[in-house]
């Protein structure tokens, strides 16, 4: 073994231990969604009054509020991106959902729906854990693949 390979192996092992101890990634879906600083009650009112016309039944491809699968890919994005998409429009969604809502109202509505989607997805994962591989297991498999490589011996 070359002397420069040994320290690299220790670095990989240290990173692995940090991730496994919880210092790396969160284990729930939508871990980038942090809605604690938003007025979710106001967002709920705004969403129900102005956004449900499309998001109630999925009109024009809109993700349905109560369907976690419709939101799973969306909440993997940062909340700031979701807010930007709602304000400026994205894909089939027109800017502000073709309403006269202020930025603050749109932001509250997006935070509400992202929080709700994350909650529904977390419940779905808890109810059907066999369909989801915990992040710790994925990290462990990656680490075992790395240490199994010839170059690490």
SSE layout and pairings?
Elements: H1 5-23, H2 40-55, H3 68-71, H4 79-88, H5 103-127, H6 135-148
Mean pLDDT: 76
Instruction: Supply Rg.
Output: 21 Å
Ends: how far apart?
7 Å
Quaternary organisation of the protein chains: single chain
Tell me the strand percentage band: under 5%
CATH topology call of the largest domain: Cytochrome Bc1 Complex, Chain D, domain 2
Whole-number total of structural domains: 2
CATH architecture of the largest domain: Orthogonal Bundle
**CATH H-level name of the largest domain... which superfamily?**
Cytochrome c-like domain
**How many β-strands, per DSSP?**
0
Describe the structure.
- Helices cover 58% and strands 0% of the residues.
- The chain is mostly helical.
- It has two domains: 1-27 and 134-153; 28-133, Orthogonal Bundle (Cytochrome Bc1 Complex, Chain D, domain 2).
- α1 (5-23) packs antiparallel against α6 (135-148).
- The longest helix is centred in the C-terminal third of the chain and has 25 residues, at 103-127.
- It is elongated.
- Mean pLDDT is 76; it is low at 22-29.
Please sum up the structure shown.
The chain is mainly α.
Which features characterize this protein?
mainly alpha; Cytochrome Bc1 Complex, Chain D, domain 2; 2 domains; 6 helices; 0% strand
């Amino acid at each position: 073994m070359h002397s420069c390979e040994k320290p690299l192996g220790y670095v990989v092992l240290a990173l692995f231990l940090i991730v496994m101890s919880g210092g790396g990634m969160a284990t729930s879906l939508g871990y980038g969604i942090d809605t604690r600083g938003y007025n979710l009650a106001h967002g709920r009112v705004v969403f129900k009054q102005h956004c449900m016309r499309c998001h109630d039944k999925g009109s024009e491809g809109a993700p349905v509020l109560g369907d976690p699968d419709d939101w799973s890919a969306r909440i993997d994005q940062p909340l700031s991106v979701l807010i930007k998409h709602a304000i400026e429009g994205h894909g089939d969604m027109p800017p502000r959902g073709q309403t006269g809502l202020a930025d603050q109202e749109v932001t509250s509505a997006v935070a509400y729906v992202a929080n709700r989607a994350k909650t529904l997805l977390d419940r779905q994962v808890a109810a059907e854990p066999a369909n989801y591989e915990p992040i710790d297991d994925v990290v462990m498999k990656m680490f075992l693949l790395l240490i199994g490589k010839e170059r690490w011996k």
